[in-house]
Design the sequence.
């Protein structure tokens, strides 16, 4: 049985990636304020447990057509999530001196299987330990709007794996 995902309004998310994190765009902010709220909530709920001295992978699973019967079915510690067309994969490396994003990639579902990672960015920007809501950890990531095709709304789930993750 597929776990039902909750639709998210994508317009705030699709304006995220015109520049890399740490760079500014004179035309508009890098991240729409509504997307910042979503990222803060993700940080508060899922990223506060980042372990130092670890490599952790954060996958934002995207159902781009809001149909749980299409795309891939992905296993998570809380059950299966159906309808995933793409996964945004962000890898974080931490040590006693802090942490940084070591890479961003995306995986596309083809024939009900997530394909190999397609590089988006080599990373290199810092993780904000204690910089988020209520002292949570902030990890910036992005996916280019063009990678989302014609999607105007989507559902999303997050899966965390690795040394500092929950599954």
Sequence:
């Amino acid at each position: 049985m597929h776990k039902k995902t909750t639709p998210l309004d994508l317009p705030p998310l699709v304006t995220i990636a015109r520049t890399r994190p740490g760079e500014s765009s004179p035309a508009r902010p890098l991240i729409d304020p509504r997307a910042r709220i979503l990222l803060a909530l993700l940080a508060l709920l899922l990223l506060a447990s980042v372990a130092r001295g670890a490599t952790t992978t954060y996958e934002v699973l995207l159902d781009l057509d809001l149909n749980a019967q299409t795309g891939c079915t992905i296993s998570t510690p809380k059950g299966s999530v159906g309808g995933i067309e793409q996964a945004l994969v962000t890898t974080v490396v931490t040590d006693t001196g802090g942490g940084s994003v070591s890479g961003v990639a995306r995986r596309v579902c083809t024939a009900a299987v997530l394909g190999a990672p397609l590089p988006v960015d080599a990373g290199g920007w810092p993780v904000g330990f204690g910089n988020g809501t209520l002292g949570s950890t902030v990890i910036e990531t992005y996916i280019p709007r063009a990678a989302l095709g014609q999607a105007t709304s989507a559902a999303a789930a997050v899966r965390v794996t690795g040394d500092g993750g929950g599954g």
